[in-house]
Amino acid sequence: MTTDLDSFEGRLLADLRAEVAERAAAGAAVPRRDGPGPGRRRVAAVLAAAAAVVATAVAVPALVGPSPAYAVGEGPGGTIEVEIDRLEDAAGLEQALEEEGVAADVQYLGTDLQCQDDRYRDAPSAPGSRTTFEVGTGGLRVVLDRRDVVEGRTVVIAASTTSPGGVDENGIEDLGGAYGEVGIARGPVAPCEPEPNDSSL
Questions:
Q1: Membrane spanning segments where (predicted)?
Q2: What radius of gyration, in Å, describes the C-alpha atoms of the chain?
């Protein structure tokens, strides 16, 4: 997920990401997980105007080589940061989280699909939890507060692509994007049974 860029490329990439974020906010707001607990969150993004900018936004990193599908690393204040650029190698992401001491269930589904609602029970969060979840034009980003992912809990990640939505009244084409769900389960997690993604309907 991280690629060495010179200062010019870094500034250009930051500017492009800012433009994507502004266009996404103007079109369809992307929820962010900032609430009191790490309960289940589902969001769909990379739609409408934002989709038109994605190719430009990824052009700079492409100049210095392809990026991995995901990255897992230490974050500030006792957190673990997870970034997912492409929906590839779910087993590898599970292993990377396990190496950080976190049990995980990662499912990458087909287009316009999600897992059923009743797979697991949501775990309560630690006081002042720093767990967050975002889906945006750059992929999925999860920040896990280590206090929320103690033994007996499982991080549950399910993601899929969304179908293109045609052209809006301004002539901007919706190229489709990503849908994601992140939760922290207490106890067992049932197998995913894919079903139509109601957020993309």
A1: 43-64
A2: 17
Task: Say if CB 160 and CB 43 are below 8 A apart.
Answer: no
The rounded mean pLDDT for the chain is: 74
* Amino acid in the structure at residue 171: G
User: DSSP 3-state assignment of 143?
Assistant: strand
- The DSSP element (H or E) to which 118 belongs, if any, is none
pLDDT in tens, 166-199: 666 777 665 667 888 899 999 999 999 999 986 5
Dist. CA 145–CA 81, nearest whole Å: 9
The three-state secondary structure class of 7 is helix
Q: What pTM was estimated for this model as a whole?
A: 0.66
- Rounded to whole angstroms, how far apart are CA atoms 64 and 199? 35
Q: What secondary structure letter does DSSP report for 175?
A: -
Most confident of 10-14, 75-79, 92-96: 92-96
Q: CB atoms < 10 A from the CB of 108, how many? A: 19
